[in-house]
Amino acid sequence: MAHEHILYEVADGVATITLNRPDRLNAWTGTMYREVRSAMRAASDDEAVRAIVLTGAGRGFCAGADMEALQGIQSSGRGQQVEGEPFDPKARSDFHKTYSYFPSVPKPIIAAINGACAGLGLVIALYADMRFASDAAVFTTAFARRGLVAEHGVSWLLPRLVGVANAADLLFSARRVSAAEAKEMGLVNRVFPQAAFADEVAAYTRMLARDVSPRSMREMKRELWNAQFQSLGEAIEAANADMPASFLSEDFKEGVAH
Prior knowledge:
The chain is α/β, with parallel strands linked by helices. It contains ten helices and ten strands. It has a six-stranded mixed beta sheet with strand order 1-2-3-5-7-10, with helices on both faces. A four-stranded mixed beta sheet has the order 4-6-8-9. The protein starts with 5 loop residues before the first strand and ends with a helix.
């Protein structure tokens, strides 16, 4: 399938979705939204895909919403609502919103943040399961400097990663944060040198595709995200309910034999 604003490829069990507007630092558009969602569906349905990487072409990951789109919103006084059918109707309703469908994608999503990551671009990265950053990456929430609010659930996501005080700092000031500081506060999982970044991300994702049970990753991803809405007791009961099917799975038999 031809795409206008992304690239999509599958190799070694890994689907890579590349935001592909490098001349605009991959500023987000409605077309990009639709194409990323379509690519996530393709990766979800492809049994050969075990993990998904979301990254950007050129010097940036995603510089936020395209300025022409923002100017259109300013003229109309209303934002674009793009919610449609849930990505997974069986997922909890929290994961049915415009950008919150990433948790219902049944495979791990790694945001490979190769450069500027701002505004809506940061929100999208936060919905990934993990964030790996190049040491050249720079982060900013941007909203407070645009007269906006903590959009699309970022007020729920950020405190869970960096704590309430750090989230307040990042949101109120909209200051630029280096990859090193982002790692220190827990915004990203790992930071790699720019020259080795693509190779390091590829090595990690190939390891997931090669060495780990896809069923385990699918079930644990669901458990992790659902647990954000559960008590400890509820999480234990949910995991206990999942265990019998695990014992009967082919992945468990293969793992024990290995």
